[in-house]
Design goal:
single chain; 209 residues; mainly beta; 8-stranded antiparallel beta sheet
């Protein structure tokens, strides 16, 4: 992963390793437990209300709960007003199978999140998450492998917060790396400070699959 433009990441508690990933068929970072990349505060521009996050990843091992990216604190994205998360999570409404997951934190009871559609183990996967805090309710959309996924999760909540700037952001796990580790490979990670529409998200995730 090379920083083309924007803020360079630093190693978290332990740096991920660089490998050739068989499922991604490319060089990638391999994140194990306690391995993260992090960004200091103010990763997002001031007064930012929308963003798009794209990741190309694979989970070779058993699917459980895996955080790809999170802007939050020790309690996660939901612990701060305007936190963000992208990952995959076991869904008790889908027989505890692991589903695509993205959310906006409220620091209270108004967390907004998408949770739906199963993830395939040990397969190259592209995921585009869009976050919009200006709408009522907040809007979270997810596109995977070129397909806009059907709406599911808790999408009826509204916050009055911009995307949080005063907390660190992490790639590969929550906070210090011990909670919900990715335990997988990432070859591409992009943050876009505008909202892609469904057509743009589908084309991006399909093109980079």
């Amino acid at each position: 992963i090379n920083t083309i433009d924007g803020t360079e990441s630093t190693a978290g508690s332990t740096a991920p390793t660089t490998i050739f990933s068989a499922p991604l068929n490319s060089t990638a970072y391999s994140f194990a437990t306690d391995q993260t990349l992090e960004w200091a505060t103010n990763l997002f521009p001031e007064n930012q209300t929308v963003t798009t996050i794209f990741t190309r990843f694979a989970i070779p091992g058993t699917l459980t709960d895996h955080i790809i990216f999170e802007l939050g604190n020790v309690n996660g994205f939901g612990g701060v007003n305007g936190g963000l998360v992208q990952g995959i999570l076991r869904n008790d409404n889908d027989g505890d199978n692991t589903n695509f997951w993205s959310g906006i934190g409220d620091g209270g009871s108004a967390d907004t999140f998408f949770l739906g559609t199963r993830v395939t183990q040990n397969a190259a996967t592209t995921m585009v998450s869009t976050y919009n805090t200006t709408t009522n309710p907040d809007a979270v959309r997810v596109t995977a492998d070129g397909t806009n996924l059907p709406q599911s999760g808790q999408l009826n909540k509204n916050t009055t917060h911009d995307i949080r700037r005063a907390n660190k952001s992490y790639l590969g796990a929550r906070n210090n790396g011990a909670s919900a580790p990715l335990n997988g490979h990432v070859s591409d990670f992009i943050i876009i400070t505008r909202l892609l529409n469904d057509g743009e998200s589908a084309r991006l995730s399909k093109a980079l699959l």
